[in-house]
Structures are given as C-alpha cells and as structure tokens.
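for ur thesis appendix - TonB-dependent receptor. copy paste whatever u need, i formatted it the way the template wanted (i think)
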Amino acid sequence: MISKRKYLFGTTVLAGILSIAAPSFAQTAPTAPQQDEDEVEEVVVTGSRIARPETSGTIPGVQVGEQDIEERLFTNAGDILNDIPLVGGGANLNGTNGGQTASLGVTYIDLLNLGTARTLTLVNGRRFVSNNSATIFVAGNETGSQVDASTIPVALIDRVDILTVGGAAAYGADAVSGVVNYVLKDDYEGAQIQILGGETFKEHDAGRYSINGVWGQNFLDGRLNVAVSGEYSFINDVRASDRSVRSNNPGLTGNPLNGAQRNPAFVPGGTAGVFLGTTVDNILPSVFRPNLRGNTLTRGGLIFNVTQTNNTAENPTIAGYVPGSAPIPVSPAFFQPGNAFRMPGFAQVSPAAWSGANAFTLLQQVPITPFGACITSATDVCAFAPASLTAAQVTAARARYGLSPTLTAAQVLAVVQANRPTAREYYAANPSTNVNDFIGTFIPGVPDIANPSGTAGILPRRAVPIRFDPTGNIVGYDLAGELATNPAAPGTNTTSAGGDGELRTDATALRVRQERYVANVIANYQITDNLRFYTENLYSDAEVRNPLANAGLQNSAGGTTPENAGLLVNVNHPFLTAANRTSLANAGITGNFILSRNNEDVVNSTEQVSTNETFRSVNGISGDFSLFGRDFGFDISHSYGKADTFVEFSAINDAAYAMAVDAVQVGSNVVCRAQRDGLASYIASYGGNPATGFIPGAIIQPISTIGPDGIRTQSLFAPTITQAMVDACQPLNVFGEGRASQAAKDFVSTRESFTNESTQNFTQATLTGSLFDLPAGPLQFAVTGEYRKEELTYFASTLGGTGRTRSAPSATTEGSIEATEYGLELRIPLLGEGFNIPFVKSLELNPAIRYTELEGEAETYRNLSGTIVTPTYDGDREEVYTLAGTWEVNDQLLLRGNISKSVRNPSIVELFLGNQAFFTSATDPCRAAGYNAGAQPAVRRVNCIAEVRRIAAANGGALIAQNGVSTPITSDADAEAFILNVGSAGYGVSGASFTGVIAGRQTLVPEKGDSFTFGFVARPSFIPNLIVAADYLEITVTDALGPLLATDSANFCYDSTSYPNNTPDIGVNSCSGIQRDATFNFTNGFELPYFNLGGTRVKAINANLSYSVGLSDVFSTDMDLGTLAFRSNIYYLMEYSTSGIGDFSDASPSENSLANPSWKTQASILYNRGPFNARWTTNFQDAAIVRSGVLQATAEQANVVRYDAYTLHNLSLGYDVNENITARFVVDNVFDMQELGNNGYLNQVYVDSIGRRWTASLTYTF
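the 3d part is after this line
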C-alpha cells in the first residue's frame, strides 16, 4: 500500500473538455509546476467529456474520488452520492420507495431534486441499461430510463463526476438536471481483496457485510490488460419497531382544543360567533403525541355495528339491519346476498365511513356534528351545543330563552350554543363521566348498549368497544386511550393517543434487505501503436426483500373499495362460539356486525421479493491518427444491456376469499356455503347469472390478453365463480389471529408476480482533433454520433393481470424507441498567452450543439371497439445546445459560464403504457366548498352548474340527493341548489375511491430545460493550495411530462373557458375522461392520459472549497506532522418553484422547506500522517419552514411551523498495517441523530433512521 497519501484537489485547465478520449487536448494543457507531495497537484483527467467539474470547465458540479470511496467504505454506488448537497432524495434502500413494488430497493439518483427521470446516469461516459419497469407503479411515478446505481461495481470505481445543468450537449438527451458519470478503473495491475462488516452500536442490527476482489494483469509485453472484479454484499433490513424513537409511533394528530374557544365578544343577536375561529384562537391545529394507535382494524379483528348513524335514544340500533336493504333474518349464512356495494361476500357499511373527510373526533369539542344533531332532554331544548336546529327546536328555544321573534334561526341557534356546553366542556366539568358514554352516544359503528349510569338522560348510550383476541375470544378494547382520563387529550375514530389500537411500526421498513452479486471483466488490447480494442462486461444479480409487505392485506371499516371494506358477519357464523355470541349480545349485537381486520395471517408469506438481473457488454476501438499534419482521435463502441426484474409478493384471491369466509355448518363440519348450496344456487343468491358465473357488484376491469389470432386484445374482465373453485373451496376462520387452516390459506392466498424485461443497444462514435490554428491556439472539435434502441416488456401473472387480487389489474406494456443523436462541440481559443492583454490570460468559447430525434412503436393490439391498432411515435428533431465560455483572468482567477438548452424525450411508458387500471380518489371542485373557487371562480361556477345539468340529463333529468330522494334538475337554479346541498337535499360528496385508466399518448413532446450558469474558480496565491469554486445556476423545466391525475383533471376541466373540451388549454381534453354517477359523485371509468404541462424552476449557488497544508510547514519543523486538508461543498437554494400550467404565473415556492432546504453543506477535515489517516465529515441541512399555500404557516395553521436544522457527522479512520494490509474503521451518524431537533419529526427521506453504526474492513493488496 502507499505509505503516504496525497490529497489531490487540483484540476485540469480545459483539457479533455470535449472528447471522450481527446489525447490531443491533454497534450495542450499547461503543465503543472513540480510540487511537494504535501501540495495541491494538478491532475489531468481523461475518459470523460467534462473533466474535474468542480473547479474547471464550464459546468458546475462535484467530484467524488477513489479515496473518498475507499475511506467511507461505501458498498453501493448510489450511496456514494447520498450526502452530496445538490443530490435529492431519489430512490434508495431506505424505506420502500413509496410502497411501489416495482421499485423495491432500487437506487435512482436525483440531481437538484428535479426528479430521477431528469438525471442521466452514465458509466465511462456511455449510457447504461435501465431497469425501471414499464408501469406507472414505480418510485415517484417517474417512468423514465433511470439507472439502478446499485448494479455498478463499487470496487472498480475510480471516481464519480456529478455535473449539473448544461451537460446534455455533450452527453445527450435526458440530462435535464445533469449527468452522473461513474468512471471505472482502467489498466488495473495487481490484486486486492477487501472484507467488510458492521452493524449499529446500540441495537446490534442493520448489519452489512461485503467481500470484494479485483485482479488485473498485463500480458503480451503490456499490450493487453485484463481486470476482473467480483463483489458480494448483504445489507439487512430494519423496521421502525426496532428503534425507540419510532417504535411507539410518534406523530401529529388533531388538536381537540382548536376551534373550541368561546368568543368573549359574542352577544345574542350580534354578528360575532359563539366560538373563535380555528385560525384566530391561538390554538395549534394539531399536537405531537407518542403512542398513536390506529382504531380502524386489528390483527385479530375489531367489531363494529352495522348502523351508520348515531345510536341515540331517538335512533336506536336495529338488530340485524343492513343500511339500504330489508332486515336480515337470522341465518347461518355469513354474508347477506343482494348488497350491491361489494364483491361476492364483501359488504361495505358506507364508502369511506371511517376515513378521510369522514373522520371525526371521539369527543366533540364544537357543536355536535355530523352525527349528534341535538340530543333532546326532558327539561331542555338540547343537552349539548348543537350544530343545527329543526324548526320545532327553534320555536322551543325562543320560548326557553325568551328570545325576540325578530332573531333569525341562525341567531337562535347561536344562543342555544352559547348556553349549552360542548361534549368536551361537559366532560371537563364532569371528569368522572365514563368516556364511553360519549362515544356510545355520538360515534356511529362502535358497539353500544343503554347507558346504565346517571348520565343516561343526556348520554343515552354507552359504547362497548370489543375485539377478537388472537385465540378468537372477544375481549374489551380501549378505544379512548388518554381521553379516558384527560378531557384535553386528542382522539378520533381512526387514531387515539394510547389505547389498544394497532401499533404497526413493525410494518414500516426503515431499510429493506439487499443481497447483491456483481462481476465485471474489463480488458483492453493495443492492436497497434495507434489502435486499441477495449471491452467492459458486467453481470449483476441483486435480490431485495421486504419481510412484511402487507399492502392490500386487510378488510377495514375505513376501506374505500369493495375488496378492502369491512366484512359483514352474522352472529350465527359457524366459527363463532357460544361464548362469542354471549359477548356480542352483551355489547348489543344480536344480528349482524362488521369485522375489521388485518389479513396477514391468511397468506402463506408476507415477504415481497424483487430480483434484478443485469448484463452489460461494451466493445469498442479507439485510436489516433495524423492527417494533413494534425492529430486526430476516434472512439467507436457498441453497448448491449439487458435488465430483467422479477417481483413476487403475496396477495389474496378476492373471489376465493369471499367464498371461503362464507361458511356454514353441515352436520359436524364447517364447509363453504357454495359447496352446500351448489354453484348455481350460490350465484343466484347474489342475484347473479348461474350461466356466466358473474355476480352483480363485482368490479369489471379493463384487461388485455392474447387473442386466438395471436394479437393482444383488450377486453372488460368480469370476475366469475367456477365449479372448480367451488370444489376447491376451504372455509376460512377470520376470528382471531392465525386461526385459519393451512388448507384455507392455500385456497385464498397466492403469490402474485410481474416481470419486466429491458434491453438497450447503444452505438457511439466520436471523432476529435483540431481543424486549424488560431492566434491563441488550435481550434479543437469533437463530433459525436449515437444510435440507441431501447425495448421494454412488462407483464404480470394471470391473477395480477386480471385484477383478481386487491390490486388493480396490471397492464401489459410492450414497446420500443429508437433515438438518433449527433452533435458538434468546439473549443475556440480567442485570447491566450502572447497577447499581453491585462487581466486576460486566456479567453475561450466552448459552443456545442446536438440534435436528437426519437421514434417509437408499441405492440399491435385490438382495442375495445375491435379495431386493430399499432401505436407509433415519430418525434420531431430536437435541438440541444450549450454556449459556454471561460475567461482566465490570471493564474489565480477563472470565470466561467454557459447558456444551455436540454430536452427529455418521452419514455416508452409515457408513450405506450397499456390501459393501466388504478384506484384513486379526488377532491371534487364542484362540491359546495369549491364550486365558486379556483383560479377563475366565475368560470368554475358556470361550468359546475352546466356539469350538474349534463349529468342529470344523462340520468333522466334528475339526480339522487344525499337524502336518497330523486331531485329533478331543470334549471341552473336547480343545479346550483343541488351543489349547495342544503339540508342534505343535494350533492352528498362520498369521498369514495373509484377506478380509472391511465394510458400512454403518442402526441407528447419532449420536456425542455433552459439553463444558465456563471461562476468562478479562484486559486489565491496568498493562500497556497486553496481552491474556491462557486457557480450560480438557474434552470427552468417546461412541458413537464406526467400522468394527468384525477383531481387535476377535474380542476383543469371546470376552470377552463373551453369546457366541455379543454384541449386548447392543456393539449388534451380532460373533461371527456371524467365519469360521474346518478348521485353526481365521481365513479369508475376515469380516463387519464399522460400529458405535457407544468414546470419547475430552480435557482441556486453551488460552491466547492478545498485546502491542504503540511503541518510541518505550519509549525516550521523537520518533524513529519502530517497533512491536514479541508474540503467542502455548499449548495444554497434560492428558489424552487413549481407551476401547474407551466408559465409560472401560478408559481408555488417550496424552497426553504424540508424537501428543499435553503442550505445544504458537506464539509470534511482530513488528516494524514504516515500510515495513518482520518476523516471527519459533517453534513448539514438548514432549518426549514412549513408553508400554508405559498406563505409560511402560522401557529394557527400548523403544529410545526419550522423544522430544526439537521447535522450528521461521520468518522473514518484508516491504518496501513504494512505494505499489503490496510485496516479501516468508520462510524456513521456519530451522535445518533434520528430526528429533527426537539420537534420529534421523523422522516427517513431527510433524517438518518438507522442510527449510530460502525463498519470495519481489512484490505489486502498483493
């Protein structure tokens, strides 16, 4: 090993700036003066078009060298960039990348936080095959050609160049935010093996282990060099339950005191309200609490009533009644046929009954709403402050309080509210009251009985929360948590602080498990003195596991789709015991009830496994020649890459599950009802057609399959029940945890999978040289031509492709694109040495232009109308350019800048995605609270009224109001009244999810990035070895590509002056894809395409500083005191704005936020003396604000209005034991920072969630 290290902070001047090889440029670079080992060295970097980007050339950026990689003990090529300030969160092993199964464990880089699809990742200056799957269900829904950096061999990386805006002219399309170029070691000689391992200090988990080796040797008198590397690495997963700061699930929940403060200015008949508003009462809207529990479901199963309204004395529970149907007779059947809201066997109390906008506090702190109307007592108008009064109650209140007949009904209501306590005020004044009396009286769905206490006059019902324990017994359930003893405690029907609710931190992955094998063979052969053959060959096999992937494995009272809704159960179900029935009766349940449970125990495995296999081979020749007395260089290469992804995860077969839980007693056996009744009778009991096996209420989904003629054919798939399914059915016990038989689990569970196949053929040719001599030097050029063909195929297993599980059916996508690019780069020296012009040592222009053209084609298919279609794309030729320049004032100062235009072409998915069904929900702009709002309220109001009339006309001239009454719509006044929904006589927004279809579109245009940078590089002579570089950069991305989501689709439609066809506004008619039912609610069938709209603008300063000094010089001694060095990268974000319409007239800022902090800095102090070296690295992220709209939130709007700064420290120690052995020890997160200051805010995208950990390695070189 080298016994004395050199910290190299030097740069090239401009050599190598244009060419991938450019030997002539290296020859023209100024020669660096001879220096001591302790001084800064000038290093000429070759092998990339832009060299040493942080302090030379025209493009700002950062570089990570071999020494950084070795000393930090990185085992994943993506981790090398994680703490670079100008790199965003991207996709990585931390978490589950948004829960998208196709992206589990991948590492995609995100420069400037503009999105991973806008960062071009290269290896040795060449494109690398992407493994991003051909589906919208990927990390961030970013459907570009991202490269998984974890496939790149760490052991062979020589350095990583990170270039920000302006690299597209040299490297090609898609480099909108910049380029990351991994440069591998070349001409390697010798052998090296490294063993590495580590874990956390405190928890002794998060283990990571690696062994890698490199061997290289010259043959044939040095004309042939072969290098081989191999790596094995294992990184273990970490769950939130493994961390003390996460295990008790801290977080924000609604503050019950917000909006509950009485208004001292209230006087009867006046204009002031009874209560201060939520934005003026100086009460935080939310509070931070540990131990937040979920109250919608448990593993064993929560029990709810089937009623949807509050159980007051005036509206008691009706045993055996299901809303919307006749009373159900007692029957051994598990499910009641005829409910149209479910798949076979599924019942839904009400869409989103316990979630989203319908969530409500366990103890009302404001006038009772929405379920508590006015609890009437024998002696008073209302026991509690009501939200509304009936006409009769208004009359009674006038008499009770002696009110003037001139007061309006609203003013009378205010008087009642002023004289009556809220439920929470009553509880505070009477803390001995059983909190379950409030819950039973006001909260729908919780089992309840008549209140046996003295408060029954005003709180007539007492809640009896119950659940199934793991053994199947029914036990009590603490729903209130802290609220049971603290009237000021928070608590809603979905979340409470404390209590017996679900604490599912074990289901939150802080990091997933990865096992990776990478092999690489690099060789080059000098055929002649002027001709060289080279080859790069890589194979990577990475397996990623998430041990507890439970998406879709539940039936919940908060479920918003039929498959995930709570289960409707009859007390006579054969798997219920006599003791169960007694417990249910004691809770007031003698007929049917709702079971809400996690279903992880009914599948054979909850593990999700993703296998990514990548192969890449690059073969090329390079050389140089002389012509007309000038030297030229060339490089011609072809790359072939193939990436296959196979993902497997557990799912529930919906139809099988429905049949299995619908069990009956036959003699001494429990069997599926379908087996007892027979297929025909079973289907008929649901109102289905025995001839087809289809049951009404099942969701019909669009799918595609190969037709008899071999052409992929779209169709609408209707789930059916077959005789084979009946024969195979096994009854499923869902009462308790783990009580299902293995046979039943085998029947209802399945391992769903999908496969993605990606191939890339990439041919690149470069010619470099000089054309003629200018007074200041030769005019140099680089001509580049590229051809690239990429192919993607994505298909799912049979169940996944037909939507027979809890996921939407996966669309099959098969398509290809062909890109042709060619360009010219010039280096034009205008002034140089010999001109003797003051303040001008050199002046150069570096213009570059590139043209790119994209064509594409997808698989031929037959659409729903029977037409055979072959989608094609023929894009226009796009121009990419850079006009750059450098002005070297003297040896101490260089000024640089560039103006650039870049593009990102549409991807295969954006162009050709098959009709991908998905579940979604949307905020309706035509609701009462939104129809007269938006960017153009008057336009939206007119369009929403017109939409009501249009939907009514399609439904016989009437719509169904929230109260269930058919309401004629014959005028604009009728339509507006329906929207306003006064007295529930109009539009009742359900909030339910619905299905939509998103598809690629062949009329897309490329995204455009316009950028501008200027900056300087300073090497002050009065501080030897100091280099400072700083650049201002600005980029504006327009025509942003993305899917048109449901809420945006509706907003664009109803805010358009072109309604009902808003194509002139956004290039596509989003109005045509909106579907509504007879209640005016959004319903299944939304059609949402990809489109070009919107933009992002970034303005920032990126600065780099490096300095080194020999301590012997500092202290004027001959003793070797070692070398001390300092380096820093500072990123100051001045603006990060997004625009929905792309012209930034509606710009929404997000700089100085947690995602985009104003300041991010990495600073390292390095010390080297003899065989010992040490490094202390500090990463700093500035404090951030929370916004409400475009302004900073106030204490009235957010609990946390400012997030503390976050600082992370890492230590690295190294020692050369001898010439062959080096030992290293690294401590990451030295001070164990796992949260943002004292706020307790936890977010693993911005905060290290693993904690303090060590890694040790031994490297043997021979």
